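> example.struct
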């Protein structure tokens, strides 16, 4: 499977076109946590590119993350973190790492 770097995101018509699945990422460490989610530094297996994975905590409402995803899906600005991938389970998403 090939991976796309963030520099080529502008060539993608839809976030769902990216060739990522949940199992493609290795957790490198925990960056932090909030009431609704934990945040991890991750990278695709076999690559050096780093991303952030925001994962909803068990028992928390997934709607909070889904609202964030919906906003970021429709927003493209150089000063706003980009959504890289979202998964069918609706529990977590991958964001660019700055």
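> example.seq
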């Amino acid at each position: 499977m090939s991976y796309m770097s963030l520099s080529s995101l502008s060539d993608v018509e839809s976030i769902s076109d990216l060739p990522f699945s949940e199992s493609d990422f290795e957790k490198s460490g925990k960056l932090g946590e909030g009431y609704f989610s934990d945040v991890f530094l991750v990278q695709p297996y076999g690559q050096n590119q780093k991303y952030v994975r925001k994962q909803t905590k068990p028992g928390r409402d997934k709607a909070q993350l889904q609202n964030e995803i919906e906003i970021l899906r429709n927003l493209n600005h150089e000063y706003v973190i980009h959504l890289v991938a979202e998964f069918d389970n609706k529990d977590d998403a991958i964001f660019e790492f700055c």
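> remarks
The chain is about 10% helix and 35% strand.
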